[in-house]
Amino acid sequence: MNPNAHDSAAAWITGLGIIGPQGSGRSSLDALIDRPRACFSNTPSEWLGHPGTPDAYLGSLPQSLHTVVETFESVSTDRSCALALCAAEQAWMQAAPVCDPFRAGVFWGTGMGGLHTAESSYNRFFSEGLALRPMTVVRIMANSAAGHLAIKYKLQGPNHTYSVACASSAIALGEALLAIRSGRVDIALVGGSEAMLAPGVMSAWGALRVMSTRKSAPNAQLACRPFSSERTGLVIGEGAAAFVLESPRHAKARGAKPLALLSGYGSTCDAASLVHPKTEGQARAMHLALQDAGLQALQIGSVNAHATGTDAGDVSEALALADVFGKHCPPVSATKSLHGHLLGAAGAFEAAICVASLQRGLLAAGLGALPLDPRCAHLDVVTGAARLAPNLEAVVSNSFAFGGSNVSLVFQRAPV
């Protein structure tokens, strides 16, 4: 283990909140790990009349959570913002921090901010000929969630929003780690939220020809199959995950106990293509994260892969993992096959799975990886059922985005 992981080199995670296709709260996440299932539904039939909207699988919130989300909605909150408020409340209540408001900040990620409001406003203006509502602008803006979180919890330090496609909330976590290390803040409310499930947005994703559809996949349980030779594409989901990060000094002073540690952050850009991933950039992000955490590749017990279930993405990441870990690649979890791709919230959502794995000594399984794509056959993909890992000490979580942005994070088991 890295001897510096328990001091100022790492941030302590003292609170965690989550809401997504699997449900709300930590118990819903544990249940998904214990009983892997694809939390997918079909595109609503009324959407299919719109041009280009695919008959695809979606990772939408369960019906039972609609009233929960509504309690966080207001005239100034888009659905994405409401999800952020829900996840953040769980994390803040668990951490129960007492802090100097000027040394506490918000670091939030979202891919496209208030798209629900944007789409409904376009329809209202162009199709219905109606004037837009007074709070339309603040509902759409990408930093709306971060602003709401700062107001709710009186956090008067830095307030930053990162919009870097699928790497957004992973970057938020990494930048919060740097801010805590540098002494700029003692505590950070960090995470990501995304709510893109609307007919126009789905039509746009459908045009990219990367989505798993009911025509290509036999059923919802096999809709997303990362690393498999029988993959059919990705599934778009919605949700949010939030964390309270603290400096060890601040957490110890108030008697807080960490759930896990965030100890490494690597970030690169391919600078080659907006949509086609590059193995070299992904591998370098992992190398940098390990170096930042002060760990060797052999000390990593698991990787939560970006693993969207697309041919280019899966193969590029598989090659990057071989570059970093060689013949000793640790077991790989590909959990988007369960909850879908939460886009800007994906990094934070999958970080929550890493925290749960470290706490429980249990590697999350995906579904449908077998038969493996021959180009990915060197990977030990955890599939079907969670795998016991009682000596799990450190994990890597990958988030790779359109625009060529690559982020890797290293999480470590909390000190006893």
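Second entry:
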Amino acid sequence: MAGTRKLGRTSDHRRAMMRAMVTYLFENGKIETTVTRAKEVRAVAEKMITLGKTNTLHSKRQVYSYITKEEVAKKVFDEIAPKYEDRNGGYTRIIKIGPRRGDAAEMAIIELV
């Protein structure tokens, strides 16, 4: 079965959470979250960087419509995408860091390579 993970949320909540997490990842370079969320963030973040590499008006509108902060969307085109110009995918890295103390959920750090 293909597609996205539901993450125990409604579709609106899930979309809002993913937008916020991708924006935060581009803003700070790395985030700490659960492994399943990290895998979902990776898929979206890599698509955003690929759009940033094309740098057309259409791709700019797509990135600006998804990323919640305008300065972070600008950073995708000005700093992040040019860094990966000669790389075909694999812009993020997920490092597992063990279980969370409260509910033993498997935690991970996702970061830009």
